[in-house]
Amino acid sequence: DVDHDAGDDGAHVHLDGLYARDYGSGESGGGIINVNGGSGVQITRFFHEGRTFGYSSYTPGFINACASSNLLVKNCFCTRGFRGPHFWSCAGLRVENNVFFINQIGMMFMLGKPEDVFSFDRNIFVDNIIGKSGQPLLLISDPAQMLPGTNCFYLRNPEKERGLIRAGGREAVSWDEFKKLTGNPSEIIFANPRLPALKELVTYSGSDEWKKAIASKAKELAAEHAPGKAWDFSEFFTANEELVKRGIGIQQEMFRD
Q: How far apart are alpha carbons 126 and 206 in whole angstroms?
């Protein structure tokens, strides 16, 4: 845990190059990393491996951060991380060049006042586990919080049918609907990021086909869960030429040491 009194400068706190495997149960409600207060904390090159407890078991979220300004999360990987990272009142938050891969229920929660602006940019999001791929991937308190950015999403169902983001207490809406409602100029690239760990995501032609498939997860377990196979950052470097060109995903050059 990283704890600071209000007003403390946390710029000297930099968590880099760490791995989390065989780590606890998500039932505790906490994150693998908990940040309380401070400013300028950096979390980089952190590998959250949540597969260890199996497909259906809950594993902890990646980050729980509260009232920590100018927090940076960059070049990290998270899989099976329950709802992913949660940020409360983290003004100036930057989430950049990460891969969020098949979490259990969601990818990222960003909650706070309208002035608690944040940016998430150049990240790759691969949809939830099959049984939870009807749940929104992003939850934010107020659309005014979100600064422009470009990200890649790889979804199981067509993007026009997918309730991708829930904002301001509304029902989850597709990305096109969100842009119409808010005017946010951010861009999403809906594409297979071509990660070495996953040739193709199990996808469906629409919600009807998906609902019929929820009861059987054997295909996903074989193709996506990869039990017993060790993973590292290199398994999640994108080979999608467009994403590489635009600097989206984990930055390979940051792993040459």
A: 17
